[in-house]
Amino acid sequence: MALFRDIAGDFLGLFFPELCLSCRTPLVHGEDILCTGCLVSVARTGFHLKRDNSLEQSFWGRCLVERAAAFSVYNRGSRIRTLIHLLKYKGRKDIGRALGNLYGSYLKESDFLNGIDLMIPVPLHPSRLRRRGYNQSTYIAQGVSDVTGVPVAEELLKREAEGTSQTKRGRYERWENVEGLFTVTKPGAISGRHVLLLDDVITTGSTMEACVNALHGAADVRVSVIALAAAQKLTV
C-alpha cells in the first residue's frame, strides 16, 4: 500500500509538482518545503554547539537563561524570513512542523537538550490566536518534539495581554511593553524542572525575557531558550 501511494504521488507530481517555497523550482522525491539547494543555503548559526554564544550573551543581565540557540539568522533577505512569514500569515502550518523537524535533528545530535524536561512554545494572546487560528510556535515545537522526544506543554504559560510593536522602542520601553504579559498556570508542573522556551523569531529578546522572568517568578526552574531564527544583531 505504501509503495502504491509513492507511485501515485510520483505520477501526480509529473502534472502538479510541489514547488520549493524559496526558489519555486519543482521538488523531487524526498524533498519537502525546500529544495536541497535552498536547504543547504539557509544560514545556520551553530549556536547549539557554542556556549556563551552571542544570543546567549544578549540575555546576560536581563534574565537567567541556562542556554540559548537559534537555527538561522533573521534579516530582510534571509530564506528563513520568507518561510516564517508564510507560516505566520499564510496558513502554512506544515512549514512550522517541517522546520521544527529539521532543527530538532540538529539539536538531537548535540548535547544542547541534555537535562531538558519539557518544551513550552511562547503563547499568543487569545484574541490573536482566534484571528490567526493557530500558534505558529506550537507547530515548530511539535516538529522539534517529533524528532527529540521532548514533550510539549503549551498550556503551562499564558499570555495575559497583547503587546504593541517593539520596533521603535528603546530597551527600557521594550521591557515596559512586555512586563507582566505572561503568567504560569501550573507552577507545580514546572517546579524543579528544566524548561525549554521556544519561539519562531527572537528580535529584541524582550518577549523571551518576559517569559523567562514569569517562569522564574512562579517556581524554582531552570530555563533555556531556542528559536527558528534570531535577528542579525543578536547573532554577530
Description of the structure:
This protein is an alpha/beta fold and 236 residues long. It folds into two domains: 1-41, no CATH class; 42-234, Rossmann fold. 41% of the residues lie in helices and 15% in strands. A four-stranded parallel sheet has the order 1-6-5-2, with helices on both faces. Strands 3-4 form a two-stranded antiparallel sheet. Helix 8 (171-178) packs across helix 10. The N and C termini lie far apart (50 Å). The model is unreliable at 2-14 (pLDDT under 50).
The global form is globular
The number of strands is 6
**What's the N-to-C terminus distance?**
50 Å
Number of DSSP helical runs = 10
The CATH architecture category of the largest domain equals 3-Layer(aba) Sandwich
SS strand fraction: 15-25%
Spatial strand arrangement across the major sheet: 1-6-5-2
Averaged pLDDT: 87
Rg (CA only): 18 Å
What is the CATH first-level class name of the largest domain? Alpha Beta
Largest sheet: 4 strands, parallel
How are the SSEs placed, and which strands pair?
Elements: H1 2-15, H2 36-41, H3 54-57, E1 68-74, H4 79-89, H5 93-108, E2 118-121, H6 126-132, H7 136-148, E3 157-159, H8 171-178, E4 182-184, H9 187-190, E5 194-202, H10 206-218, E6 222-231
Parallel strand pairs: 1-6, 2-5, 5-6
Antiparallel strand pairs: 3-4
